[in-house]
Every structure is written in structure tokens, then in C-alpha cells.
Write a structure and sequence with these properties.
Elements lengths: L1 E9 L3 H19 L2 E6 L4 H7 L5 H9 L2 E6 L14 H11 L4 E7 L12 H4 L4 E7 L9 E6 L2 E6 L5 H16 L4 E6 L5 H14 L6 E6 H10 L6 E4 L1 H14 L7 E5 L5 E5 L16 H13 L4 H16 L17 H10 L5
Parallel strand pairs: 1-2, 1-3, 3-12, 5-10, 8-9, 8-10
Antiparallel strand pairs: 4-5, 4-11, 6-7, 11-12
Helix pairs in contact: 1-10, 1-12, 6-7, 8-9, 10-11, 11-12
The structure holds nicotinamide-adenine-dinucleotide.
Amino acid sequence: MEKNIALIPGDGIGPEIVREAVHVLDRVAESFRHTFHYEEVSMGGCAIDRYGSSLPDDMLAKAKAADAVLLGAVGGPKWDHVPKENRPERGLLRLRAGLGLYANIRPARIFPQLAPSSPLRSDIVRQGIDFVIVRELIGGVYFGEHRTEERDGQRVATDVMSYSEEEIRRIARSAFETAQKRSRRLCSVDKANVLDTSRLWRKTVEEVAQDYPDVTLSHMYVDNCAMQIVKNPAQFDVIVTENMFGDILSDEASMITGSIGMIPSASLGNGGRGLYEPIHGSAPDIAGQDKANPIGTILSAAMMLRYSLGMPKEADAVEQAVNTVLEKGCRCADIAAPGEAAISCQRTGALIAQEIKAN
Ligand code: NAD
């Protein structure tokens, strides 16, 4: 097959980790006889420096023209004082909206080799952590009206949270379909005891459930869910929730799996187009030092192969290669045990690429 991939290295450690993911993809192409064409897209702080905009129109057009987009990370202290309309993160929000990506899929899975890195008690970790959070990505309070005004001599800030039935229905469908590919258990998370948006959320998810009789649906309040994720994560298979709740719960879920550097994500819209990125930021504190863990980005590339490029065997091969390298005891600095020798970002990428095999 021949596929076009847009690469957004971004800022900080972004270029280092994307480079390693490309080495792995090149090895996939070689082993499975595919051709990948890469198109580099400038987004984030680097695009502000070069073009004065965190995502120039022609860069968004390049991303839209590709079969899939692989992103490192954007942002850093250098751009913290840029006006909010043009912050590096704005480029990311524009990209998600421009590509119509409404579903964010984030696996929370612990590699057994890394179980000691989890901050949870070992008896909890031993029961297994393997669930997926499906988060609504382009609605809710992050996309509502924001304003700060002067009222009765003091500043008052307002952020509007709203959801339409259709916005809820399409993310619910993605979640039910995700659950159908796993253990067919879906937990919908809301705050229906307080919020109108949550009451509509719950009602709509229940309506959509009629079309998926093979999936068992349950509901949980978001505050309880935050507790259950640390108390008994093994109970979850697929969680679906709105944008802000998903943002917070998915960070919590990633933390319990050990390292932020290991976790991939996919953001999907209609028609299979997707944006794939590790969940961490640009890690300015270790940028340019060849210390970053590229595995989150490499596993994001595996999700890209599976969800957007129609290459499930190739995705399995990448995930298997990561597993083998961890099995052999190779560890980047963030996942090395105290006193254990750590390998560099480049070495990690090279070892994983070497292990790619077409079966
Ligand atoms: P961060 O995720 O960049 O870093 C948090 C900590 O985790 C740091 O100590 C960092 O060194 C470490 N870390 C992160 N990724 C790592 C990796 N792959 N390997 C090893 N260690 C890793 O979060 P932050 O410091 O809050 O944010 C830094 C910048 O990134 C900010 O400008 C923020 O806005 C931006 N950001 C971007 C995205 C994105 O591009 N999607 C997401 C979150 C934050």
C-alpha cells in the first residue's frame, strides 16, 4: 500500500520522538512492502517563530490532505507570553477542529514489565489495568464562550458548557463500537445529579445503547469515577465521557500505568482520518538531550497503522516490538528503576525498529 502521512514534530522533545517513530515506520514499510510518503507540517511554537501563526492555513491544508497525522508535542516556556489567540495550544485546537476530530481514544494499559513504576499498590496493579477512555474532543466547555467582565466592581469570569444531542450521539457511537472490539462493557461518565449537559448526555447515551444490545452499559458520576480509577481500575473496559471530564480522567488513568512517556492516543473523526500523538507535552526540561522516551509516539504510530491506514498486522508488529524491547530490559531514563542503566531516545527507537518483523 501507498500512504501519505503528515508529520508534525512541533517543539521541545517533539522532533526527537517523531524521528524515532519515523524510523520504526520506515522499518514497517520495508518489512511489509508498503510506501509511506511523509509531509512535514509546522505547528506550535516553531510555527509562531517562523510564520507568526501557530498553525498557518497552508499547514492545516497539508494536514487535511494526508491519510493520517502523527504529532510529537507543541508548546514551551518561550511561548508562554504569546497572546492566548495564538498560543501553540491554539494550533492544536484548530487542527482538531479543522480535521473534525471529535473522538479521543486513549488506552490505559500497564506493561507487566513496568508494573513496579505504577504509583498504585501492587495488589491493585496485579489485577490488571487495561481500559480505554473515549473522550469527546471538540465540544463542551473548552469550546464554549469564554469571557471575563467587570460586574459590581469586581471581575467575573464565565465559561459556557453546552452539548447538542448529535455531538453526544456520535461520540457514544464511537464508544459502543470501541467496546464491541473489546470486552463489550461501556461505562458512561457524567455529573447528571448536577448538570443539564450531563442529563442530556445520559439520556442520549441510553438511546444510542438500543442499537448496541451486545454491549453492557453502566453509568458513573465523574467524582466516583476519579476514585474508582485508583481504587479498582480492573473493573473498567471502555469509559466514555465529555471533553473536560475526559481530559482530567485520562491524565489520572495514564499516571497509574507508570510513565507519561509510554502512552499513545488517537483522535478520530468521520471517514477514518485521524491525529495520533503521545499524551505528554513537549518536556522542555529534557529537550535536545536525547533522553526522551519515544515509546508513546511509537505506540501512537501503531494506533495510526491500525485505525487510519488499515494495517492491523503492522500495528501488532510495532506493539510486539515494543514489548520485546521492554522484555529484554531496555529502559529509557523515565522508566528505569533507580540505579538501572538508561538508554537514549535514539537507541530506544533503533532497538524497537530492529525488532519489527513481518510474520
Ligand atoms: P510535559 O508532559 O511536557 O512534562 C511533564 C514531565 O514529564 C516533565 O518532567 C517531562 O520531562 C516528563 N516527560 C514528558 N514526556 C516525556 C517523555 N516522552 N520521556 C520522558 N519524560 C517525559 O508537561 P508540561 O511540563 O506540563 O508541559 C510542557 C509544555 O508542553 C507546555 O508548554 C504545555 O503547554 C505543552 N503541552 C503540550 C501538549 C501537546 O502538545 N499535546 C500536551 C501537554 C502539554
